[in-house]
Amino acid sequence: MIKVDNRKVVAGIAADTYKAHWKRNIITVSAILMTTFLTAVVFALGFSYWNTVTLRTLRMNGMDYDVELSEPRPDQVDKIRAMEDVEAAGVSIKCAILERCGDIELDKTQLYWLDGVCWEKQCIPALEFYEGSYPERKEEIMLSESALTAMGIEHPETGMRLSMEYYPLSGDGNGKITSGDFILSGYFRDYTGRMKGYVSRPFLEESGAKQTDFTQGTLKISLKKPLYTRREIEKLQQGAALDRQVIKADYDTPVNFRKTAAGLAVMLFMVLSAGYLSIYNTLYISISKDIRYYGQLKTIGMTSMQLTGLVYRQALWNALAGIPAGLLAGRLLAGTVVPAVLRIVNPTLAAEEIMSEGLWVYVVAGSLALFTDIYASRKPAKMAGDCAPAEAIRYVPVAIGNRRPYKTRHGKGGVVISMAWRSLLRDKKQFAVIFLSFLIAGTVFLTVSTVILQNDARSVLNATWDYDIRFKNETTLDDMEPLLTEEKIKQVRAVPGVKSVRIVSSADIVVPLQEEVFGDYYQALYQSRFSPGNYEKDMAVYREQPGYYLFMARLIGIDGEGFERLNARMGNVLEEESFKAGKCAVAVPVIIDAGTEARNSMMGKTVRFLPAGDLAESQEYGGGSAEAAVRIAAVGDSGDNPAYFGRGYTPDLIVSREYAGQLLGTEFIELIEVDYEKPFAEDTERLVKEVFAGEGKISRESKLERYVEMKKTEMQVRFLGNGIGFLIALLAVFNYIHMMAAGVQNRSGELAALESIGMTQAQLKQMLMLEGAGYALLAEAASLAVGLPVSYAVFQGMNRYHMTYSFPWTSHLAVFTVILVLCILVPSAIYSRTQRGSVIERLKNWE
C-alpha cells in the first residue's frame, strides 16, 4: 500500500475552513486575546498590589527584620552575622527619652542609636521617605514626623535648632534630665505612629546606654529565608549562646504565609478557569455547529487524526493571533497607563515601587493562555475526530429532547418566556459551561473584593485602634496637674459628631506584701529574664516598706463604656453591679505575662491596698481605716489595661470610676478616648482638637492623623486593588459577550426559522434578553452560595489584623447590576448587529 503525503491538502482544507468561518474565529481570537490580556494585567496588578500592601505593613512595623535578639553581646553580634542563614544583623540601642521641647511636654519620645547595618538595610526600607542624613555629631538628631508634629513643627527643615530636655537611659540608672540644643539633621515618615528619633554615636556614648543593657539593646536579624521554622530559630539560639536573653520570633509566619499562598492560588486558579471556560465554550459551540461538515470530510477520506489536527491547527492560529495582541495590550496598560496614574496618585513613589511586573509576568501569562487554548480544544477536537459520517449527517446540535410543545394558553408573553427558559436549558453542556464561567468570575470578584476591603487602610486602622482620638495628661506620674477636667470633657461631648467619651482615671496605690495573692506571680517574675534583682532581699525590704517603689501599683478607674469593652475582651466574666460597687476588680500584670499557673493563682483572691497618699501621711503602716479590699475576678494582659502609664511590678487594679471616686475622694483623669459617629470625620476632629488647643502638657494620638500619613500609599492600594476587581468583573462580562455572540451567530438559522413561522424580531429579542437575564440571576444566586464560603475562607487565611469578616455589599451589588443590565441588552444588540439579512438569505446559509 502506497503512503500518500496529503499534509498540504489537509493544511489547505484547514486554511479554507478557517477563512470561511472568519466571524466565529474573530470571536474565538477575541476570547483568547481577552483571556491573555486579563491574565497578564491581573498578574501584574496582583503582584504590585501584594507588594504595596506588604510594603505598607512593613512601614507600619517601622523596620525590616525577621527576628530580634535582646541585649546582644559584641561576640554574639559577630557570630550571628557570620551565620550562613543570616542576611543582615543590625544593632539598635534605646539610649534616651525626650521629655520636653520648648514649652511642650512630649509623650516619652524615644531616642535610638542604630549602627550602619540597621539604618541602611533595615530602617531605610521601612520608611516612606526621609530627608537629610543620619546624625554624626553629638548635637545632631533625626526625628519622625509624628514627633515633630507633637512638638508643634508642621514644616520641618534640616539644620533647624531645637531646644529640648531628655532623660539618658544609662545602664546604672543614674541618668538625670538634661537640657540641650539639637540640630535637626533629618526627618522621616513611617506608619508606626510612634514618636521617636535617632541620634549619633557620640550622643550614645555620653548617655551611658549600652547594647547589653536590659530591654534597651536589640539585634535586628534579617534571615535569608524569612519563612523560618522553630528548629531554625533554635539553631540560631544555640549558635549565639544566650544568657537570660530571648530571640523574639513569630512562629505563625510560615503558617500564615501558607494560608495566604493557598488563598492566592485559589483565586489564580479561578481566573484561569474562567478564561478556559470562555475559550472552551466558544470552540465547543463552533465545532458542534460544524459536526456535519466534519462528517462530510470523513466521507471523502479524512481520518480522525487529521480532523483532530485540523481543529488543533485552527486553535493554534487563533492563539497566534490573540496571545501576542493580548500581551501587548496588557503590557501597554500595566507598564504605561497604570504607572502614569500611580504617579499622579502618589508623586513620591520611587520607580521600583510603582509596578513590580517584569518580563516573566508576560511569559507566564502567554504560556498559560496558550496552555488554556490548547487544553480547551481537547474536547472539541476529540468530538470532531470521533464523529461517524452517518451520525454526523443526522446530528442536531440542539438537544431539545422529549419536551411538551409550546402552549399558547399562556398568551404571547408566556410563549416567549417558555421558549427563553427552554432555550436556556436545552443544551445542558453549553448551559453548564456558561453558568460555570459566570459562577467562577462572580466568585473571584467577590473574593478579591473581600481581600481588598480587608486591606483597606480604614479597615486596618478600625481593627487595630479602639478609639478615634486619645488625649493623655503627660503630668500623670510627676506633677499630676488636673488638665483633663470635667469642663473640658463636657466641651468634647458637646462637639457635633462625637459619639462617646471614655474616661480613664488613675492613682498610685500601696499594696502590702500578700504572698497568698501575688506570691506565685512574684516568684515567676524573679525567675524570668525580667527579674528585678534578688528575690529574698527585695521581699525582705518589701515587708518592711510596703510603699517600696519596685512594688508600687496603680488603681485604674473606668466608666460604663470602658467596662463594657473590658468585659467583652475578658469573655464577659465580670458582673456589672458587683464591679460598679467595688466588690471585684481586674488585675493586670504590668511587666510580664506571668504564665497560666501564676495568673490563675490570683483569681478569686481578695487583695488589700490603700492610696499612696494615706501611707505618706502616716509614720508607719499598720493597716488603718484607709485600707480597702477587692476580689480579683479576672486577670488581664497588658493590652487589657486602658491606662497608659505604669509604676512598679505589682499588678495594676482596674475598678469602676464610681468606686475609685468614693475611695480617693478626688479623681485624677489620666486620659480620655473619643469615638466619633463617623470614623475619620475631619470636621469633628478639628473641633475636638480645638478644645485642647495650646495645652502643651496634653498629648494626643489620632487615628485620622495616622490615616493621613498612610493616605498616599492607601490610594495606591485602592487603585491597584479596585483595578483587579474591575478586571475580574470585566472578565465575567466579556466571557458572557463572547458566549452570547458565538451562540447567536451559530443559532442564526434557527432564529431565522422561528421568524419565518411568525415570530417577530421584537419577540426574538425579548427571548434572547430573557435568556440573558436567566443566566445573570442563576449565576448570581450560585456565586453567592459558593462565593461566601470561599471568600470567608480566603479572608481568614489572610486575616493578619484579626478583623471581622465583612461582605462587600456595595461593590457586589453595583457589579451585579451592571452585569444584569449587560446580560439583558447584549443579546439583543448582537442579534441586531449580526442578523441583518432577509429571512430567506439566513435560511439558505443555515447549515
How do you describe this structure in short?
It is built from 31 helices and 19 strands. Helix 2 crosses helix 12, helix 8 runs antiparallel to helix 16 and helix 15 crosses helix 29.
Could you describe the 3D structure shown?
This protein has 847 residues and is α+β, with helices and mostly antiparallel strands. It starts with 6 loop residues before the first helix and ends with a helix. It is elongated, with a radius of gyration of 36 Å. It has three domains: 7-55 and 257-460 and 710-844, no CATH class; 67-248, no CATH class; 475-695, no CATH class. The model is unreliable at 398-411 and 615-625 (pLDDT under 50). The strands form two sheets. It has a six-stranded mixed barrel. It has a six-stranded mixed β-barrel with strand order 12-13-17-14-16-15. Helix 2 (22-61) packs antiparallel against helix 27 (703-746) and helix 27 (703-746) runs parallel beside helix 30 (809-834). Helices cover 55% and strands 16% of the residues. The longest helix is centred in the C-terminal third of the chain and has 44 residues, at 703-746.
